[in-house]
């Protein structure tokens, strides 16, 4: 390393630049990329890099402006000014400006650009593609990253990670989770992803209690294009994607689209996935107005793999899947072939952005989501009474149970509007915005077959419930550049939520919540390379449907409470020639946090309970270090944390017991990762990716039986691009070996307990049990992408 750094010190020239707009106003926070070096402009628009003699391509991006790309010839010390022009196509980035932050904002965040997404996009879902970001843990029910996948950030599960697409909330309104399986191959239509850890900025949908994920869909292309991508791999996995774009038509119109098919048998037995998706966009632009309509969605049929396996089975047959297992009338063990989750979801978005002048931009969006589908299960010896049926008598024998096949249906509509008005000048960026949305959800169950039908009719309906939710918020936030060194951030949000539902409690649920969520921060620029930031943010969050179902089943039928989080973030950013370093400390203090107990309901959804006082505190460090120009780079990150419940009380052996301060469930104290990127020749890249996740408990009791072991997984990817002179613009070959050292590991599970009152009625004993979701051993994916 010292030899490499010594070589880098030779023949260096100082390259100084300034980024301005047509009015000669400096643009602070512009992103500058030259080769593998990245930096941002300071409050006066300046940046400084050291470059060896040679020819380079510089790329400068700034929200609301057209990307600038120029060729540089460095022979001596240089000082240049770069003028960026406002462009209506760049208004696409304004679609997410209201929920994203700039590089200098006092909010802890990470970004993934298009190139970084494409490097691993061979069939696996978006959470898996985000696996190597700081403080992130991902898991897959089927074990190989296709089908149902999940993500946790700072120990917070998916129901506490707010997800938006172009500023529109994606989380399901009732369960508050994000089901990526409903949007297969969405990574192929994603321009960039921003992960904000902690509360982040005001956003639409349920409050962020661990993180926010903001996705921006593909930008329009001025030139027509086509793309065919195919990949195959282990477990009979294959993905086929076709993309097209018309380019700019008559200087005003643009159309593009994508069709995708993904299939996989899964690592776990019968954990198959049959996924199809589409993505269509049309846009219109003139000098100051940009209108974009999007229609996208998907359908999935996945064999259920959310039951997990016990420890003994994990050791003997880790791919075993108990879902669909039953005993036929002759005593033979069989598996029901249609034990599936079958769901379709369609999204429509209409975005309108108008630039009134150099300072003012307005945005309004309308959206609609239609989801429908079911879980199908074969059930043995079910009581007639549970399905609203009467016992029957055959040959003088009264029969009260039957084998049957049921479908538990979901059918929902989600629609609304978002809006914002942005003001920008050299001293401030201010946004006033908000959202209104309505969710109508139906929950109903049908029996489609029964060995003994009793008085049922075909498709006998045994329950029919609903859940409706109104959600509205308004906010004002801004960045204020007080001086060359000081930048202030403020964000005030008011949110009101009404949730009305039946079927989750003995009586009707009709709750209204009113939340005030203030946020404030400061960024202090020490010099051109260093800045410090501090922020405070408050978030409030309403309970989800399963929280009502769980708590109403407990003694005294206690209703779940809403949660409050106070988040403090202190960070230092270093941005120099060959190193970008981000370090932050955080303290997240919760009141009535709904923590996961470790248990699950009958369709694999986690169960949570309120605890009065808890906190998450830690340090996160991530870096990008260029060891040798355009050849070798490393991207390490580490997150060290403490995640505690204060004075946790739970039932044990029939009595309430205080366990003191205990670790929060599913919250490892150590999460680390690294990417070593090696480019020996142009267009050929090797990446070695590592991920370490420390041990974690699946309950809040710190019981050894509930512990998930730590794991250390390594992947290897290679990508090579050729540039043909005819027919194709480029052909890219990609190979990926996941878990190259064949680690047998478990990234997720569940833990349950019950009081045994039958074995010894005089002494109640609590019995514990656990389930595990094993992840795939060594496996591979290879693909080729042809662009024309």
What are the defining features of this structure?
788 residues, mainly beta, Immunoglobulin-like, Maltoporin, Chain A, 2 domains, 24-stranded antiparallel β-sheet, five-stranded mixed β-sheet, 6 helices, 4% helix, globular, disordered N terminus
Topology, element by element:
Layout (H helix, E strand, L loop, with lengths): L1 H7 L3 E10 L9 E4 L2 E4 L5 E7 L1 E8 L6 E7 L3 E7 L6 H4 L14 E4 L1 H5 L7 H4 L6 E5 L8 E5 L7 E5 L2 E2 L20 E8 L13 E7 L7 E9 L3 E9 L7 E12 L8 E13 L3 E15 L7 H6 L8 E3 L5 E3 L4 E16 L4 E24 L8 E3 L2 E3 L1 E24 L3 E23 L9 E22 L4 E16 L7 E17 L4 E12 L3 H8 L10 E13 L3 E22 L5 E23 L3 E3 L2 E9 L3 E4 L2 E4 L3 E2 L6 E12 L2 E10 L2 E2 L9 E2 L2 E12 L7 E9 L7 E11 L8 E10 L4 E9 L1
Parallel strand pairs: 1-7, 11-14
Antiparallel strand pairs: 1-4, 2-3, 2-5, 5-6, 8-13, 9-10, 11-12, 13-14, 15-16, 15-48, 16-17, 17-18, 18-19, 19-22, 20-21, 22-23, 23-26, 24-25, 26-27, 27-28, 28-29, 29-30, 30-31, 31-32, 32-33, 33-34, 34-35, 34-36, 35-40, 36-39, 36-40, 37-38, 40-41, 41-44, 42-43, 44-45, 45-48, 46-47
Quick recap:
With 788 residues, the protein is mostly beta strands.
Give an account of the 3D structure.
With 788 residues, this protein is mainly beta. It has two domains: 11-86, Carboxypeptidase-like, regulatory domain (Immunoglobulin-like), CATH 2.60.40.1120; 217-787, Maltoporin, Chain A. A hairpin with a 3-residue loop joins strand 15 and strand 16. The longest helix is centred in the C-terminal third of the chain and has 8 residues, at 545-552.
Strand content: over 45%
Characterize the main sheet: 24 strands, antiparallel
**What is the radius of gyration?**
27 Å
Number of separate helices: 6
Structural class: mainly beta
Distance between the termini: 40 Å
């Amino acid at each position: 390393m010292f030899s490499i750094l010594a070589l880098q010190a030779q023949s260096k020239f100082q390259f100084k630049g300034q980024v301005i707009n047509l009015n000669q106003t400096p643009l602070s926070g512009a992103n500058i990329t030259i080769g593998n070096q990245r930096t941002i402009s300071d409050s006066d628009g300046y940046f400084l890099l050291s470059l060896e003699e040679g020819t380079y391509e510089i790329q400068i991006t700034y929200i609301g402006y057209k990307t600038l790309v120029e060729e540089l010839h460095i022979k001596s010390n240089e000082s240049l000014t770069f003028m960026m022009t406002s462009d209506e196509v760049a208004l696409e980035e304004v679609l997410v400006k209201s929920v994203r932050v700039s590089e200098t904002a006092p909010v802890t965040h990470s970004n993934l650009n298009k190139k970084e997404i494409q490097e691993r996009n061979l069939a696996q879902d978006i959470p898996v593609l985000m696996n190597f970001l700081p403080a992130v843990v991902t898991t897959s029910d089927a074990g190989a990253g296709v089908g149902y996948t999940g993500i946790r950030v700072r120990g917070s599960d998916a129901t506490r990670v707010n997800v938006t697409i172009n500023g529109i909330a994606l989380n399901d309104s009732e369960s508050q989770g994000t089901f990526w399986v409903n949007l297969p191959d969405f990574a192929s239509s994603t321009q960039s992803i921003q992960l904000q850890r902690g509360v982040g900025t005001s956003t639409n949908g349920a409050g962020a209690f661990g993180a926010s994920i903001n996705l921006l869909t593909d930008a329009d292309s001025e030139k027509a294009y086509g793309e065919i991508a195919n990949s195959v791999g282990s477990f009979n996995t294959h993905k086929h994607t076709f993309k097209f774009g018309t380019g700019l038509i008559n200087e005003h119109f643009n159309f593009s689209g994508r069709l995708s098919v993904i299939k996989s048998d899964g690592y776990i037995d019968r954990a198959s996935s049959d996924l199809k998706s589409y993505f269509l966009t049309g846009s219109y632009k003139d000098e100051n107005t940009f209108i974009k309509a999007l229609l996208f969605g998907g359908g999935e049929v996945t064999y259920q793999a959310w039951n997990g396996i016990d420890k003994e089975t994990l050791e003997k047959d880790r791919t075993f899947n108990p879902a669909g297992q039953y005993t036929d009338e002759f005593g033979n063990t069989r598996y029901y072939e249609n034990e599936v989750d079958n769901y379709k979801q369609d999204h429509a978005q209409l975005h309108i952005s108008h630039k009134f002048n150099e300072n003012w931009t307005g945005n309004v969006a309308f959206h609609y989501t239609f989801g429908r589908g079911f879980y199908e299960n074969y059930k043995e010896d079910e009581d007639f009474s549970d399905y609203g049926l009467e016992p029957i008598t055959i040959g003088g024998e009264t029969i009260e149970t039957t084998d049957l096949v049921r479908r538990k249906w979901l059918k929902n509509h989600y629609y609304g509007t978002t809006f914002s008005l942005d003001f920008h000048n050299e001293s401030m960026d201010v946004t006033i915005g908000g959202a209104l949305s309505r969710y109508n959800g139906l929950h109903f169950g049908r029996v489609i077959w029964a060995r003994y039908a009793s008085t049922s009719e075909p498709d006998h309906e045994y329950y029919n419930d609903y859940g409706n939710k109104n959600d509205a918020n308004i906010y004002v936030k801004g960045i204020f550049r007080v001086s060359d060194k000081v930048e202030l951030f403020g964000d005030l949000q008011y949110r009101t939520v009404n949730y009305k539902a039946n079927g989750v409690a003995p009586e009707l649920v009709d709750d209204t919540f009113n939340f005030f969520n203030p946020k404030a921060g400061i960024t202090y620029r020490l010099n051109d390379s260093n800045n410090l930031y501090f922020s405070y943010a408050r978030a409030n969050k309403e309970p989800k449907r399963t929280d009502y179902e769980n708590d109403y089943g407990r003694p005294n039928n206690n209703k779940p409470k809403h949660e409050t989080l106070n988040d403090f973030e202190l960070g230092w950013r270093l941005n120099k020639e060959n190193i970008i370093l981000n370090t932050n400390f955080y303290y997240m203090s919760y009141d009535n946090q709904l923590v996961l107990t470790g248990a699950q309901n009958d369709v694999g959804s986690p169960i949570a309970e309120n605890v009065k006082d808890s906190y998450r505190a830690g340090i996160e460090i991530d870096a990008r270090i260029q060891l040798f120009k355009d050849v070798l780079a490393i991207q390490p990150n580490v997150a060290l944390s403490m995640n505690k419940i204060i004075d946790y009380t739970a039932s044990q052996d029939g009595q309430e017991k205080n366990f003191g301060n205990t670790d929060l469930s599913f919250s490892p104290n150590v999460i680390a990762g690294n990417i070593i990127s090696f480019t020996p020749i142009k267009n050929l890249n090797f990446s070695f990716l590592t991920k370490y996740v420390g041990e974690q408990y699946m309950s809040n009791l710190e019981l050894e039986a509930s512990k998930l072991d730590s794991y250390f997984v390594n992947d290897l990817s290679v990508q090579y691009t050729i540039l043909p002179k005819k027919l194709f613009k480029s052909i890219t070959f990609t190979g990926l070996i996941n878990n190259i050292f064949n680690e047998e590991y478990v990234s997720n599970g569940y833990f349950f307990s019950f009081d045994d009152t039958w074995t010894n009625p005089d002494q109640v004993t609590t019995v514990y049990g656990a389930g595990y979701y094993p992840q795939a051993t060594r496996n591979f994916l290879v693909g080729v992408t042809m662009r024309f």
